[in-house]
Amino acid sequence: MSLKNTARIPLRLAAFLGIPLGLLAACANVPRASSPQGLHAFDPQEVLSDSQVEINYTLGHNVPRRMLIEAKDREILASTFVDHRKLAEERIESPRYPEFLQKASDFIAKMTRVPASEGPGCRTPFTITVRVKASIQKLQGCRMSEDGGLSRLVKEGEFLLYSKK
Amino acid sequence: MRLLLRIACFTLLAFFATTLNSLDPGILTPENARVPGIVRAPAADSGACRNIHKAVCQKKGVTRDPTGTVRPDIEGEIQALRAYEEIIRAHPDWTSEQVDEELVRAIYTPKARARLQSAFEWVRKNLEKQIQRQPDGVFTQAHKQALRRRIQRTVLELPPPMSVYADEPELFTKNDVFYERLQDGRLRLRVGGAYILSAKSWFNFIFTLAHELAHAIDPCELRSEGLAIPAYDRLSECFLANGLIASREYRTECGSHDQLSETFADWIAARVAADALRAFATEFEVPALKAAITNSVRDLCEQDDPQSELDTQFHPAPEIRIDRIFGRNPQIRTLLGCAPPTGGPEYCNFTPALPERASRLER
Predict the structure, then answer these.
(1) Are strands A125-132 and A75-82 parallel, antiparallel or unpaired?
(2) Is A133 in the same domain as A55?
(3) How far is the alpha carbon of A127 from chain B, nearest alpha carbon, in Å?
């Protein structure tokens, strides 16, 4: 069979298939809805269904700290630990939790663009992980090389935990 | 008769001063806590002298000296978080910033700030004197000037308003006290709110603030500023030789897994604390003196939790910090009534360069 023959597609069929195919292709290339920073925005329903924000960090002392907020089937559990000991744990009903997770995600995206600075060993390391279903973002960094964003995130998490809303 | 009345009045005043000390921890500075006229030389306690870490850390829970108490770190943090929760409950419509502002007012009271400021000023002046006292063979005039300048430039930042810690708002409920050098060259100390709730002992303030202020002149800070002081190199060698810095294959000096900065800060803090204890506590009763010494470093102990897992990447283990850096300081041992430790290396000190040392020996 010649190329010419196989390449012959009736115009009507082409029109019939081409327009929706073209639309599909166009839709696939449209950028996802973005948050103000131009970063990826999560669907709040997906966040409430299965997600997690975990922050591990050290301040001036050599004591590990951890904050964990998990959502499963719209139930949200927040807890904080110092030196592996649980300080607080609360169920929260927070319409603000998806917003908090988004901020954590934006923080990771922003920090990932900042080149790591050379210098002595970091005394205040942190790791932040954001998971929404199977999608995971993770960042390891040093508090001294960022402008307080992590601290504000931790504070906001504490406010969510204790205000429970 | 008048003389007898005066003696009686004086004795009663002294009695009430001592009673007030025990009833109202946290208010007093060492001047208020001193009971004039009573001087006791402590008897040596061979058990404690052999293992000062054990002597300091064996008692669990709250420890008390005439100037205040020290509680386990976790209790201070729990208390701070409870205060935070209460404010949120009392004002459910407040924003996070409004809650923080109220929390800061509750914790960083004028009295607490004044005590911290006075302790910080005492530490600053003492550290400057210690530098000035060193002979020219240890620090030249230029070295002394550079070191003093760094100490003077270091500011103790305390809220309110809460905006003072706007870039670290979580600190209001944390126990940490730390030194920071900012990218614009500013040097500062910050104090977590939970520390103010867990530590009320003036002697703990002295050791803690001296440790942090010492970081302004620690070997790694000076190196990052391009300052090289030979006496520091000799001191660092001594720390390594004496096992006060963990010798690790993967250690890089002033880099990862290096304890030099923290060991230096502890070593300086021990000297400053020793001066404070000598200045203020030698007129305490013996148990009070020992309590003051204990409370200086009480929060360096392992916390009362089997799950606790201290990271010794940058800080030496508590036993080394308390027993070998603090506990072997000759002044501390004298205050405790302990003889110098038998065997083992000499306690590290700033030393002049070798030729001058040799000539001093010859004389």
Answers:
(1) unpaired
(2) yes
(3) 16
Helix (H, G, I), strand (E, B) or coil at A56: strand
pLDDT class for A7, splitting at 50, 70, 90? very low
A37 within domain boundaries: no
Q: Which residue has the tokens 């006060």?
A: B244
- The whole-angstrom separation of Cα A57 and Cα A82 is 10
B314: chain A residues, CB-CB within 8 Å:
62, 121, 123
B66: closest CA among B19, B98, B133, B4? B19
The residue with tokens 């010419």 is: A4
Residues 6+ apart with CB under 8 A from B281: B30, B203, B288, B289, B292, B293, B335
Cβ atoms of residues B190 and B171 within 8 Å: yes
pLDDT tens by residue, B44-102:
566 778 889 999 998 888 999 999 999 998 899 999 999 999 999 999 999 999 999 99
pLDDT in tens, B290-337: 999 999 999 999 876 665 666 677 888 899 999 999 999 999 999 988
Residue of B170, B179, B258 with shortest CB distance to A151: B170
Same domain, A133 and A66: yes
A39 part of a folded domain: no
Has the ipTM of the complex gone over 0.95? no
Whether residue A35 lies inside any domain: the answer is no
Query: A48 and A9: one domain?
Result: no
Rounded to 10 deg, the angle between the B73-90 and A149-163 helix axes is 60
Is A72 found in the same domain as A129?
A: yes
User: How far, in Å, CA of B354 to CA of B363, rounded?
Assistant: 14
Please indicate whether, in this complex, the C-beta atoms of B314 and A85 are within 8 angstroms of each other: no
Residues 6+ away with beta carbon under 8 Å from B155: B186, B187, B188, B189
Q: Which residue has the tokens 């409950």?
A: B89
Tell me, yes or no, whether A123 and A153 share the same domain. Answer: yes
Domain that holds residue A17: 1-30
Domain count, chain A: 2
Site of tokens 């110092």: A82
Phi (first) and psi of residue B190, to 5 degrees: -130, 150
Residue A63 sits in the same domain as residue A131: yes
A47: tokens are: 């966040």
B147-B346-B271-B200 Cα dihedral, nearest 10 degrees: 130
Partner-chain residue, chosen from A83, A158, A159, that has the shortest CB–CB distance to B308: A83
Q: Nearest 5°: phi and psi at A108?
A: -60, -45
| Angle at A92 (CA atoms; ends A90, A95), nearest 5 degrees | 160
